[in-house]
Amino acid sequence: MKNSKQKKSKGFGKFLLSLYSPVKGLFCLMIFLMILAQILSLIGMYTIKNTVNLPFKENFELKQLYIALAIIAVVFVVETIARYISMTIRSIPLRVKQGKFVTQKLFNHLSNKSYSYYSDNYSGKIANAISEVCPKLERLNKVILQDLICHIGSMITSFVILASINLVIFGISFVIYIGIIVGRLVYFKITYLKCQKSAQIENREFNGLLNDSIMNFTSLRIYNSVNAFSNNIVGQKSRELFYKSKASKHEFLYGFFSNILHLVVLISIAVYGLELYKLSAITIGDFVFILTSMISIKNSTTSISWQIVDISDTLVVINNSYELLYDDNNIFEDNKPDLQINSGTVEFKDVSFKYTNEDVFNHFSLKVEDKTKVGIIGVSGSGKSTLVNLLFKFYKCNSGSILIDGKNIDDFSNKSLYNNITYVPQDTILLHSTIYENIRLAKPSATEEEIFEASKKAELHEFIESLPNKYETIVGERGIKLSGGQRQRITLARIFLKSTKIVIFDEATSALDNETEFKIQKNINQYLKGQTIICIAHRLSTLTDMDKILVIEKGKIIDSGTPKKIIPKYSKTNYFDQTN
């Protein structure tokens, strides 16, 4: 267990560094300029201390004061310029370049996740994991640059001044205040961070639950379940707030202790400083700087402590995103060679598979020859959709293999597999974008003419042209502004646009009226002559043009034959509800 945690921790470190890979130069320049500004600040403060003591020295001349003031002015002007350039780098080029890179990196990584990953997690939870990283990185950059380095620099400046005045005062203040910071780091790791991590996990669950409820709000309202479901949301929020409150208690407790300790130290050193002044061991300027340095160190200590809290909170969020998005249990490697096929022959060879304890397939075999059209029918739960899930590698076979063109699909990358297959599901989910973009999804490089032609083949072009905004019409979230038939026709247009050797229909025309279905079937027969077609259906009329129809029951082929044989035979029975 310990090794697993260490491995995950190292993995997070590499992940965090990878988020800075395209901006390493900018980040280093930003840090260098801010450190330079702090060094100049130290020089300026030390010069001021010496300038205060100038009038009390023998052979003092006024021009010495002017020279000292001129040096101070130059130092602080250069410091201001360095600080301003550093902050500008953080606010503009670093933020833009890093933000674009990180967003693309995290989103593209989703293609490496298994099917179960999306079924096991709220979509809102995953979206939050991605959207939270960029603002947290911006926050991390700001705290490290603008706050932490500045206050560490200020603390170093104060310590150097104290050391130049009196080593005893320097030693006492150094040990106590560094001890406060180190103690807080240890205390936070033991108590605070655990609470914050739990709070952040609960917050992500809350966002996922809230997003899911909003997406299905119509159903909640229809069933008068809004008030009842709000209790679930409030309960989830309460769990998050419980851990946040627990974390805050730990923070305030330590803050109270450190403030009391500071007052004791400040009063003690002030008294000790007065005694040194009485003994002429230090000047009045030295005494003033002792007090101002002690106050500055106290403020820096408090600020650094809060910045440690801030950085910790930020890293907790980024780490939680990393653990969710890069979970080893839900990722598959896609660095295998690309699948190159010459024909569309699909074969399930001695396949066994089960979701839980009950077998869906037990030594199941099926071969669909190249350029043939095979229909598959069966009652719900017979295994029809599972065939598709296995073909797309959403799940792995317990035994056996699936071959395309005689090649085992497990030996090739998922991306190349999907390039060779077009899938048309029953439940069409569209992006909240234009009709044009939703069709082009199947082939991002498609021309306008290709998209229009695909729409015509799907009997969709005339409908689109009748709309006020035509192809620029926004379909709404999940295509809610369109009817079920219109959504399915957009998906069918994708088939004609992508034009792969293998096409899978899963109840693809179930939402269409008889006339539109007839036209589309005609177009499929006309334009998809060179493809292998597997058509899963309940409505037998969909399968009249198939070369062969298979009947599946409990994961076995119980009957097969031509449409002329199978359709009349099963139309006369109550084998399944044909209205589905």
What does this structure look like?
This protein is α/β, with parallel strands linked by helices. The protein contains 18 helices and ten strands. It starts with a helix and ends in a 9-residue tail after the last helix. The model has no long low-confidence stretch (mean pLDDT 81).
Q: Compute the separation of the termini in Å.
A: 50 Å
Total strand count, please?
Answer: 10
Spatial ordering of strands, largest sheet: 6-7-8-3-9-10
Note the main sheet.
6 strands, mixed
Q: Write down the overall geometry.
A: elongated
**SSE topology string:** HHHHHHHHHHEEEHEEHEHHHHEHEEEH
**Average pLDDT for all residues:** 81
Structural class: alpha/beta
Extract low-pLDDT stretches.
none
- Could you tell me the strand content as a percent range? 5-15%
Quick summary of this structure?
This protein has helices spanning 2-18, 24-53, 62-109, 115-120, 123-131, 133-165, 167-215, 217-222, 226-278, 284-325, 384-391, 414-419, 435-440, 448-457, 461-465, 484-498, 514-527, 563-571; strands at 346-354, 359-368, 373-377, 399-404, 407-408, 421-424, 502-506, 532-536, 548-553, 556-561.
Descriptive labels:
580 residues; alpha/beta; six-stranded mixed beta sheet; four-stranded antiparallel beta sheet; 18 helices
What is the fold's blueprint, element by element?
Elements: H1 2-18, H2 24-53, H3 62-109, H4 115-120, H5 123-131, H6 133-165, H7 167-215, H8 217-222, H9 226-278, H10 284-325, E1 346-354, E2 359-368, E3 373-377, H11 384-391, E4 399-404, E5 407-408, H12 414-419, E6 421-424, H13 435-440, H14 448-457, H15 461-465, H16 484-498, E7 502-506, H17 514-527, E8 532-536, E9 548-553, E10 556-561, H18 563-571
Parallel strand pairs: 3-8, 3-9, 6-7, 7-8
Antiparallel strand pairs: 1-2, 1-4, 4-5, 9-10
Helix pairs in contact: 1-10, 2-3, 2-6, 2-10, 3-6, 5-7, 5-10, 6-7, 6-10, 7-9, 7-10, 9-10, 14-16
